[in-house]
Amino acid sequence: MQILIISGSPRRQGNSDLLCDEFARGAREKGHSVEKINLQEKEIRSCLACYACFQTGACVQSDDMADVLAKICAAQVLVLASPTYFLTMSGQLKVMIDRLLPKWQDLGGKDVYIIVTGHDGKSGLLRVGDDLAAIWTSLGAHVRQIIYGDHVWKKGEVLGTPAMEEAYAAGQCVGHTP
Length: 178
Ligand SMILES: Cc1cc2nc3c(=O)[nH]c(=O)nc-3n(C[C@H](O)[C@H](O)[C@H](O)COP(=O)(O)O)c2cc1C
Description:
α1 links the parallel β1 and β2 (33-38). By secondary structure, this protein is of the alpha/beta class. Helix content is 37%, strand content 19%. The chain has helices at residues 15-29, 52-56, 65-74, 91-98, 122-138, 162-172; strands at residues 2-7, 33-38, 77-83, 111-117, 142-149. It has a single domain, classed as Rossmann fold, CATH 3.40.50.
């Protein structure tokens, strides 16, 4: 399957990014095609709410989102990863989600995996997972799994935790989730 991983932390090789790579490792071992996008490396400006895309199907802004959106549309499986920032998802990920507007009616049917990290316990991260799951469910996607990397703060603290095994196993199970 065609898998697109969207890593929403500004920290390369941070905790959520490491979980993305572990998911990718599991999926590649099963023969899936995997691409990862680090949102921090992309220029994606905020939605202008001009609704021009409702007429044309495309955003009036010229930045990296056209390319990212084409990849999202082409993927059968999406992995969305975010650190918890003040109880919600990262700004990078939210800005990208708003820019789905030109194609919001074309995103149904995909399998979606969500990765959330934070220094809090799982109860403090649930809101992020729930919000992301609600967004993608409303778009008609199937949210297959939410992986929580809890109690991780500094870069790399997620290494050796059960979340790494969970991410790897989720990557291996792509296409087999009932
Ligand atoms: C601006 C900011 C706000 C944060 N707010 C929270 C929070 O509300 N809850 C939490 O558990 N962790 C919070 N954290 C900690 C990060 O979620 C945590 O360090 C996470 O592992 C970062 O993921 P990353 O390594 O993928 O960047 C915050 C970190 C930053 C920089």
